[in-house]
Amino acid sequence: MILTRVAMVGAVVAGALVGAPLAGAQPVPVPPAPAVPAPVPPAADPAAAQPSSVAPTPTPTPTTEPVPAPVGAPAPAPAATVVPATTTAVPTTTAAPAATTQPAPAPAACVPWTVSTVASGFGMLENLAFDGRGNMLLSEGAPSGGGALRTLTAKGEKGDLVEDVNSPGGIVVDGSRALFTTGNNAMSGLMGATNGTVESVNLDTGERTTLAKGLTMPNGLAQLADGDLLTTTALGDSVGITRIPAGGGESKRLSVDLGSVNGIAATADGKVVVDTSFDATSAVHVLDAADLTAAPQTVKLPGDGRTNIADDLAVGEDGSVYVALNGAGKVVRVDPVSGNQCDIATGITMPSSVRFGAGDGWDPTALYATSFDGKVRKLVPPTR
């Protein structure tokens, strides 16, 4: 069905299977588009959550040590389920061609953000979220396929939320529970394993519940206004978005080809934003949550997509999209309307996810980034 895409990414992932970094290939130059002047970025990007007290900004700490890309072996799916759901694969078809905004080169006025390390010593970090109670939640994985959900306070205190998680991926906080994916490893995607799940943990009691099972490499996770969940798959024959009904029942893969989608976010104004990881060209797609099969608005990112390796993303209140480029080692800000782009942070070791701060001690104007080197970094926007 999409064997050409599997063949395309196979070389990239195969390198990882023998210990080589995913970003080992050299990027293919992309001719720049005509320069488009852009205004100086605002002093601070809007926060994705309500303002809170701001912790002092730590002194920037450069981090350059390389970390190998993770490759997990598939593990058995959890036996106990509460509301199991069966995934039904829908034949993939290609949506009508969308009008694509071509990328503009980074303008001279694009000022980098200040980067500092706020925590280290974790395993390979895949994703993060804030629980609204002063904790950052972190999905921590390992090449062997194990993992856990960890916690971190703004004071640097570490804790454990859920132990023994098989390759955790995206995290979404919904009231008193945290939702997360499992089975997010490359081998599961390439082999078509269906050991992936979406689970929840009660933040008060620690009770763990399975919401959906039978998924293939569920990676990114987002929740729509009606409570339905969306998860992404970036490798194998099941690449795309899967929709999971809020009340349980049959999970369905969307019948639209968006490429090797990875990061995903649902916005308050009814949009769903995704990016692609292993396609030849990195892209950010903006979809209508009311009709996820309609042709998306698309912005292409410069560079070779197979070495960019776009991972998770966040959306600011002004609609700007912030993408963690895992292979390129940077975070880029994209205006999905004009196509203007800015590398707000570079030289980061394999960043995997970004979120605006929320809760006690976390700066709501700053982005916090996880990475495969086990560090959490703070990205502070420039002042005028």
TrEMBL record:
Pfam families: SGL
Listed SUPFAM superfamilies: Calcium-dependent phosphotriesterase (SSF63829)
Ranges annotated as biased composition (Pro residues): 57-77
InterPro entries: 6-blade_b-propeller_TolB-like, SGL
Signal peptide start and end residues: 1-25
Domain SMP-30/Gluconolactonase/LRE-like region: 242-371
Coiled-coil ranges from the UniProt annotation: none
Keyword list, A-Z: Signal
TM annotation in the entry: none
Region (Disordered): 39-79
Biased composition (Low complexity): 45-56
Name listed for the protein in its UniProt record: SMP-30/Gluconolaconase/LRE-like region-containing protein
Organism: Rhodococcus tukisamuensis
